[in-house]
Amino acid sequence: MLKRKPLTALLGLTLGLASPLPLLAQTDASDSQRVGNIQFGNSLDPTGWGAYAVPDPVGMSYLHAGQLRTPTGVLYPWPHQIPDEAPLGTGDWTYTWLAQFGYIHTSGDRNDELLRMYSGWKDGAALGMFAFSALNHKTGQYIDFRGSRISSQDQYYRMRAGRYGDYHIEVFYRDIPHTLSTTAFPLWNGVGSTNLTLPNGLATGSTPAQVQAVEANRPRQTLSVTRQSEGVSWESALSRNWIGYAGVTHEKRTGDRDWGGPMYLTYFFGAPGPGGPGTPNIPGTYGGQYDTVRPVDFTTTDVNLGLRNKGGASGWLFNFTMTGSFFRDNKSTLNYAVPFAVAPGSTSVATGGTWSLEPDNNYYNVRLEASHPLKLWHGEFSISAAYSSMRQNDALQAPLSPMYCPSGQFLGTTGIACADWNTTAALSRQDGDARIDSGLLNLRLDFRPSAKFSWHLNLRQRDEDNMTRYTMYNPLTGQYGYVPENGAEPVVTGQTELFQPGSPLYQSNFAQIASIPFSYNDRKTELGGSYRVNQNNTLSASYLLDHQTPHPRERTYINDQHLKLSWDTRSLGSATLRLSYEYQKRSGGPYNPDPYLAAYSPSMPGYVPLAVGDTAFTVAQMYKYDMSNLEASKLKAILTEPLGTTATFTATLYGNRLRYGADIGRQSYDTTGADLSWDWEPTASTSMSVYAGIESSRLKQGNVNDNEALAFSSPEQADTQFGGPFFPYANFWTATDNERDVDAGAHFNHVFSPRVRLDLNYDYTYSRGLNSYNYASLAAISSVYLPFLTAADIGNSFPPNVYRMQTLTANLNLGLTRRVGVRLYGKYEFGNYADWHYAGFGMPADLIVGNRVFTELGPQPHWHAMVVGVFMTVKL
Amino acid sequence: MTATRKSSLGSQRTRRTTGVIALSLTVLLAVMTGLGGVLLWSSGAQAQQTDNASAGQAPAHQPSSRLSESDIARMLPSTDMGAGASMHGDMHARAFDGSQATPFDAAPIPQNPLAPGADAIGAKSCAVCHALETIQASHSLHVASFRAGSANTGPQASCEACHGPGSAHAKNPAAAGLIIAFTHDAKTPIETQTRTCLSCHVGGARQHWIGSAHQERGLSCTDCHNPMTRSSAEGVLAKDSINQVCATCHQDVRAQFNRRSHMPLPEGQISCVDCHNPHGSITQPLLKTDTVNETCTTCHAEKRGPFLFEHAPVGENCLNCHSAHGSNQENLLVLPVPMLCQQCHTNSQHPNDLLTRQNLRNGLVPDERVMERSCLNCHSNIHGSNNPNGAKFHQ
Amino acid sequence: MSSTHRVLHLVAAVILWLPAFSIAAAEGPPAHTPATWTDLRQQQPITGDVQAGQAKSAVCAACHGPQGLAIVPIFPNLAGQSATYLYVQLMTFKNGQRNDLVMSGQAAALSDADMRNLAAYYASLPAKPAGQADAASRGGRLFLDGDPAQGVPPCQGCHGPTGQGPRVYPSNTPQPPWSTFPRLHGQSAIYVTKALGDFSNGTRSGTSNAQIMHNVAQTLGDADIQALSTYIATQ
Fold this sequence. Notes:
heterotrimer; A: mainly beta; 26-stranded antiparallel beta barrel; 3-stranded mixed sheet; 5 helices; globular; disordered N terminus; C: mainly alpha; Cytochrome Bc1 Complex, Chain D, domain 2; 2 domains; 50% helix
């Protein structure tokens, strides 16, 4: 044993299990314990097994026609033809293989974002499938390989090998594409790096017209991220009842995605258009927003090691897992130069911005699950405990970049010296030192006192300890707080987020001066039972009290109660109906609209309140939807109805009604939907299905504009009451998101003759979202727009968002000889898209709007694209 | 000063939290040390356990008159999923008599409560009538593993290890219930079906099967798995892929993957089981990790942080803002920005304005709070910022 | 729309229509699967006109006897046999999936209606009275219990505990074509021996049922066949 399986033996020895007899537990290679890399497929073959999905006309049994059904009543698909095998060498091994290779050609709008979202279509040679399997019929040793490649961004190769019931090894390599935009025209040079520079001819202080002229000629780029991952895992029976497993995955994510770049709000500074109200305004020349492009250059290494016991003599089922995940960001900053001065004439400072991208982090998790049967009432006791820790200790970067705020310069007229902020000496500490630990304990008792009745009690407590404490304190200046928006805000407005006790300039500033260490603890208590009324009817009920104690949040505790009732029946003929209803009621402690004061300057000694007070943090009547009261009803029914011996009808009906106890914040969220499908498998060589579904949802929210005239000028600005002077009823507005989704399709699969097989799919998706709004008076909009806009201009909705896609996919397999065939693949996709976020962005020059630079035009409004592939299939 | 702040923000919290965390750690350690003891004890206790188990079983042959409710209760599986050593003891003793065979061929034959008098007859007899089934099953992982190593003796247990003793069925095949069946209209109770599978496939991913949503709603293993054919690349599934299996019942969820932004499931790059463990879990809805966020951050590890500045709803639950399967907005968002953010941000000044169609690029007053990435144009580090200037996530 | 685009649309259209041509094209090469045997899995019980069958039965009586009981043991008794079984046999004789020097010729002349009528007629005749079979004999054990060691399934499963046809229960699940399974009781030992031999060596393999019987017969040794034939003959 030591020679044959050193790793196994090593693990066994470590745990003191080295047993003289190699009595093995059965491994089962089940992957349903770990997250990710379970599924290997691609757009050419989503199941990853399509090449073998050749119906076998002989069927499943000589004894009866048709296929049997699952216990619920769904037909099992007809069996696939069994691939031929051949002996491998002279031993007991046999093998089989299949290769499908050919050429893919795309045409039409081949660059459309939605066509390419997760498909790396590329003209050129492609590997539809290469699969190889070998099995030793005597020893149960096996090896399975399959791989497919559409392009270098979209491919997978995976090998599994082992011995049945003994050990199992898996190795994979894969690339998954994610296209984020194909209509990006970044203004900057250096996309993909950590330093975005202005193209020739532009420097901070340019006019919108100058920038527009350059932007109009920027090349189109695709923003995408590719996940390249590889992994190896192992699972093996160590002794009679012990199974060990381990795995390492390494993932590299590279690419670019759209990002931001604030240099202070510009909307404040517009001026009426030349035609007066009703004509487009003249964008202001202060501030700036930059839709930049950030690099993605991540690696994540996951390690997991575990040991489990199948029960054995002690009767305890154990599962012990240790997980470590190590994330590394190879490009953790982003600097960008800006073409516009944040204030006209002030070009010397705030000529760019800097971002801290995600820091490296480590995550550890130790988990133990154990369960044991109880003599009482055929019971089972189960305990799970886990401890996890998320840690991050990256070097912090200087608040401002010395490139854009060089030493010797000052931010506008504020007297803030760049030298005091462009170095890490300005920080209270040099590293992130962030850490959140959490502990979980879950206890469960299940009992089955009689054949008809069972009940359970589950207690679960999960607590977090957020140890991150960061105080924004600059030892160079003795100030707390920060210089917002890369210094742009002080330059434009003279305002800062700085606080300094004893300083007349800063002692009354309302500023955030520390991080807020959020933590969420929760305790769930569930009691449930199930009663089998008779052979065909089961009733279940459960009550769950979820007691959450978030900190520091608007409520110190929340009680979320769930009452669930369900009825599962087979009494309606041969159909199975599963019906469930859930009533949820959430309440909690008093709602404090501003629980964060401890992290703000007024909590500090030396804070001198102004005569006009602090501006209200928020309106008192606003309830955040994760903290607010909630009363919800959810109903769902799933019906599976066998039709004769060859067809099945399935229907799903559902409706959710959520009422949040809020006027301001989320008010309600309703969803109603239905899905129907019909599957038909008349013979072993024909199957088809038709489906259709509809869902509509409606989310309503309320909000109130503050009385901007009072801000910083009147003590009434501190009034947090809705209906008061600062949040008057007249400023109230509501927004409703109405969405309607329809999907339908038909699938048809037929073997015309042993040599001709057709697979045809049509899928249709349509969704329409309408964002409408209502307001008490025009005071709901920003006061800066009052001179420009009338109620008629505003109307009551955004233009509808539409996403419609129709896809026709055909696979025709023609057998030339027993071993050689041709696969013709065709996919025709067309659709249309409208999203008001991108409304008006038609060409690259449109991306410059006043002091704002955008990057993307958004997905194409209409697209037609076709992908065809010709493949040669060769098999053993 | 800094130290004071630190304690005022979190000391009380820390103490309380540390309590439960310490408790969970203690439990972990206690059970770990307990493992060693259990191991030593287990070999000695086995014989005794076997006796107990056989004593507790229903008599093998009894008059096949109608079963009373109490008979059924007596025959019910205890909820340990057959974890007792008795299920496995014999099997391994027989399996490892020096041969190269995998342990399967010595698998125990489960009792069929509906045919208490039946005897095992061996796979040879089954295969005579069920010839096509045998061919198909032999090429699926499940039965292939039974066949391996039993080439000389024949895989005698391969049918009855799951279907129970076959003699009664062979004599009267049309009478339902005489073997353990796993299909629609089978007279075999679902509990017997699942217990049969779990007697070998015990623990691991199925540790929490009892009490799981699928167990409580009366699903059987064969609602999702079909060990009689090889339909799927892996997982002995009842359809060609995991996603097709799940979509049989969860049609509404399948439809969500057709939306404008979605997880790459229709493209075949991910499956439901990448995130969910359909066999049961202690985290709703059948998640593999302890929280929603731990599931998401397995692949989106950069969003795990922790960051200097955290955004309250982010650390709480990714689903506060994202719908995990698919959405009509970009980036799986529940609502379009800025409405998404304006559900909570009613603070003074720029967040709480009503923004309208006139704020679009082609409106009268284009506004950065609406165009393109809206709020995220500036607050891009919305998942948390590690920049000392990043309290508002805009650096 | 570019010209390549248009061309590709055309290609797609062709691909989508190809099956229409392929069906015709595919008629040529013979299918390698079920054509070699008649699929009885969907065979429904047949009906026929007993009177008309009787009118056609004169030739049959020459061998199978005036009351459907064979005059020499080499021929099977037809009286009380399952009509559907009889019909299927005639049909397979006629289309060549079962061969017999005499029967192939006889069946060739029959129309489908004739076969149904004849089958119905013989099914309506009183079966041979039950005999005194020895359940404890080797044949009896094989018939009733099978022999797990050899992999012999009990015959009674499909042919009934007394050889008078299978026991059938109402069910919604796909069922075997029970009506196509013959009643065996009282068939002569010589005939049963021949039939099992034909199944075993593949002479009689023209139906889905024969595929099963081939496997069954293969598990039986010569002595088993003898014992079984004797038992069945005395049933």
